[in-house]
# Entry
Amino acid sequence: MKIMGIDYGDARTGVAISDLLCTIVGSSTVVKSRNTEKAIADIVRLVDENQVGEIVVGLPRNMDGTEGPRAELCREFAKKLEEATGKKVVMWDERRTTVEAHNILSVHNYHGQKRKDTVDAVAASLILEGYLAFRGR
# Structure
């Protein structure tokens, strides 16, 4: 079974998929869509193509641990995704993943449009890595 990590966004949603042993991130991509239903349809296709058994959606929390309006949107997205895929969907604290993704891309000289097209996939990879590390303990 593979696990999928998701960094949900309004225009782009980062998607990362583990290897079969669920120890490392095997691949990542970005689903570009401002339409939630289309984004979910694209993710369902990726779930089926990659034989994903579990999905982890990043939950944006404030630094003090509270949740704002964005967290509620992510919870709603996760619920729709669980219904559409029939797979277990876990919410995972994603604090600082986007900041960390930008730092990683800066170190590797990704700037402008190149960074914009990649940052969500990197953030999804970080969400998935955190969840895989937690499961491994």
Residues 119-136 form the longest helix (18 residues). The chain has a mean pLDDT of 90.
